[in-house]
Design brief:
This protein is of the alpha+beta class and about 100 residues long. Helices cover about 30% and strands about 25% of the residues.
């Protein structure tokens, strides 16, 4: 940090997983992505959107295309055959998506 200048901070949180279309063949879980920053590069200092796993997959592909030699973080696995409760799987995935965005 430079004296006299506030350090730029960006916080991102993956929260509030919700099952959409529950009980149907096309149900999925989406997550609330909350961003807060004091960076001058952002017009809005807070933003909030809901995104599902496949949109994280799309984002990772875009990052890989443009990253050159910089390694892109992994996403949590996509498993239809998770052993344990659905809630446990959703929470583990939420934590993995949080880690992905932080990196």
């Amino acid at each position: 940090p430079v004296p006299g200048f506030p350090q730029e901070l960006t916080t991102v949180r993956v929260q509030d997983p919700r099952v959409q279309n529950e009980g149907s063949w096309n149900s999925y879980v989406d997550y609330k992505i909350f961003l807060h920053t004091n960076s001058k590069a952002f017009t809005a200092k807070t933003s909030c959107v809901r995104r599902r796993y496949r949109e994280f997959v799309w984002l990772r592909r875009q990052l890989q295309r443009n990253a050159g030699l910089v390694p892109v973080p992994e996403l949590p696995g996509k498993s239809a055959f998770f052993v344990g409760s659905t809630d446990e799987f959703i929470e583990r995935r939420r934590q993995g998506l949080q880690h992905f965005l932080e990196r």
